[in-house]
Automatic annotation (TrEMBL):
InterPro entries: DUF7704
Keywords associated with the record: Membrane, Transmembrane, Transmembrane helix
PANTHER family per record: CHROMOSOME 1, WHOLE GENOME SHOTGUN SEQUENCE (PTHR37019), EXPERA DOMAIN-CONTAINING PROTEIN (PTHR37019:SF2)
Source organism of this protein record: Tolypocladium ophioglossoides (strain CBS 100239) (Snaketongue truffleclub)
Residue ranges of domain DUF7704 in the record: 3-144
Listed name of the protein: DUF7704 domain-containing protein
Transmembrane segments: 55-75, 87-106, 118-139
Taxonomy, superkingdom: Eukaryota
The keyword Transmembrane helix is annotated on this UniProt entry: yes
Length: 156
């Protein structure tokens, strides 16, 4: 199905997004204490508990899972309806991800992007970018989906 997507959404959803998810996975599992401490920019170092480490590993695992499921859906199905429904689910997830990230930052930090660290930019700006790309795709900004290529039936 990925071949049926217009070029910009195809590249975004099959290359850019999976790479960003793998990056999140690697950050969370390679240095979970850093990953946890960076979720909300702080001036003083934070104590990271064993519970937070396990949650970071679990979140990293979910990032990897999302990337693999996304590639599986986008690269194996020829059903436009399946892909659109998958992208709708991610679109809804984007809203929650940004809302929780903003809530975690608090009003003062949220309104001062100059104080954001790379993690805050990734959690908010990257997710807003992906949300915008999904929205633009749904609105037809990139043009229509290409027709699915009919597979030739084998002669028996």
């Amino acid at each position: 199905m990925a071949a049926s997507l217009p070029t910009v959404p195809r590249v975004t959803f099959t290359i850019v997004e999976p790479i960003s998810l793998v990056a999140g996975f690697l950050g969370a599992v390679s240095d979970p204490a850093w990953f946890v401490a960076e979720q909300v920019p702080q001036k003083a170092p934070q104590v990271v508990t064993e519970n937070a480490i396990v949650l970071a590993w679990q979140l990293g695992n979910l990032y990897l899972l999302m990337g693999l499921v996304g590639l599986a859906v986008l690269l194996t199905t020829s059903e436009v309806k399946v892909v659109r429904n998958y992208l709708v689910a991610l679109w809804i997830g984007d809203i929650g991800h940004v809302a929780f990230s903003c809530y975690g930052l608090g009003r003062e930090r949220m309104l001062n992007p100059s104080e954001w660290n790379a993690m805050a930019w990734g959690n908010i700006a990257m997710t807003v970018f992906l949300f915008s790309m999904r929205s633009a795709y749904f609105l037809g900004v990139f043009g229509p989906d290409k027709p699915a290529v009919a597979s030739a039936k084998k002669a028996t």
